[in-house]
């Protein structure tokens, strides 16, 4: 889905961010747990993949609505980064051009930026991997971009099917990317930690040989559905 924003040529300079400890806690829980804990919402499309395995982070979103094939607003957005932020870019029309490479990553890192989520293309993947600079993207594509048309920074966008408001928490790992609304972040963390505790108990029981059929009380439901053992 394309980026959704009212108007263009806007840079919002002051945004609210979630508490750092809450952001770190969500990152420790991971995408799958956070997604389930907040009612199975906020997950970006399955095509959003990390450029290298093992990448994992949680950060506040600085959002970019950018024209297709034009990365001018990435440069504008980098100035707005605070320590620990991540850039989240949605093109206004579908695009796979390589908006981002190692030079922009170098600039981002100097400003405290932690990574990039982009519903388009990225390039210089070997260099980014060597830098340990995480990117989740729709495509890897060497096609470059221009700098001609204005977009906006720190406005609401729709990135890979998920609504992202500036300051929302992005949780990303090998399972994909999940968005947590800033105002819900603390409550979601509490639910995610409770889910982790319950899963740890189940993990111990499964490791001891107990079956999911019994842990989850499945037998009667299966019988009601007509399952027969012969």
What features would you describe in this structure?
With about 230 residues, this protein is of the alpha/beta class. It is about 30% helix and about 25% strand. Strands 1, 2, 3, 4, 5, 6, 7, 10 and 11 form a 9-stranded mixed sheet that branches. A two-stranded antiparallel ribbon has the order 8-9. The longest helix is centred in the last third of the chain and has 23 residues. The chain starts with 19 loop residues before the first helix and ends in a 6-residue tail after the last helix. The relative contact order is 0.23. The N terminus is likely disordered.
List keywords for this structure.
elongated; disordered N terminus; single chain; 31% helix; two-stranded antiparallel ribbon; 9-stranded mixed beta sheet; 230 residues; 8 helices
Percent helix, as a range, is: 25-40%
Number of E strands:
11
Report the major sheet: 9 strands, mixed
Helices and strands: which structural class?
Answer: alpha/beta
Give the distance, in angstroms, between the N- and C-terminal Cα atoms. 49 Å
Mean pLDDT: 96
Poorly predicted segments: 1-6
**Amount of beta strand:** 15-25%
Radius of gyration, in Å, reads 20 Å
Shape: elongated
Helical stretch count? 8
Q: Give, in order, the helices and strands.
A: HHEEHEEHEHEEEEEEHHH
């Amino acid at each position: 889905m394309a980026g959704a924003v009212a108007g263009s040529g806007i840079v919002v300079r002051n945004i609210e961010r979630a508490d750092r400890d809450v952001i770190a806690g969500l990152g420790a829980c991971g995408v799958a747990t956070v997604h389930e804990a907040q009612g199975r919402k906020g997950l970006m499309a399955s095509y959003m993949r990390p450029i290298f395995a093992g990448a994992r982070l949680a950060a506040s979103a600085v959002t970019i609505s950018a024209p297709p094939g034009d990365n001018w607003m990435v440069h504008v957005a980098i100035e707005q980064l605070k320590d620990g932020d991540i850039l989240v870019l949605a093109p206004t029309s579908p695009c796979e051009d390589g908006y981002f490479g190692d030079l922009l990553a170098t600039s981002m890192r100097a400003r405290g930026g932690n990574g990039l989520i982009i519903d388009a293309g990225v390039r210089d993947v070997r260099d980014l991997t060597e830098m340990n600079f995480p990117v989740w993207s729709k495509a890897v594509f060497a096609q470059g971009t221009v700098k001609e048309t204005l977009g906006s920074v720190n406005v609401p966008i729709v990135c890979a099917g998920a609504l992202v408001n500036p300051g929302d928490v992005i949780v990303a790992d090998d399972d994909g990317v999940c968005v947590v609304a800033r105002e819900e972040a603390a409550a979601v963390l509490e639910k995610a930690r409770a889910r982790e505790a319950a899963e740890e108990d189940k993990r111990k029981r499964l490791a001891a040989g107990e079956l999911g059929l019994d842990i989850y009380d499945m037998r009667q439901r299966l019988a009601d559905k007509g399952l027969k053992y012969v």
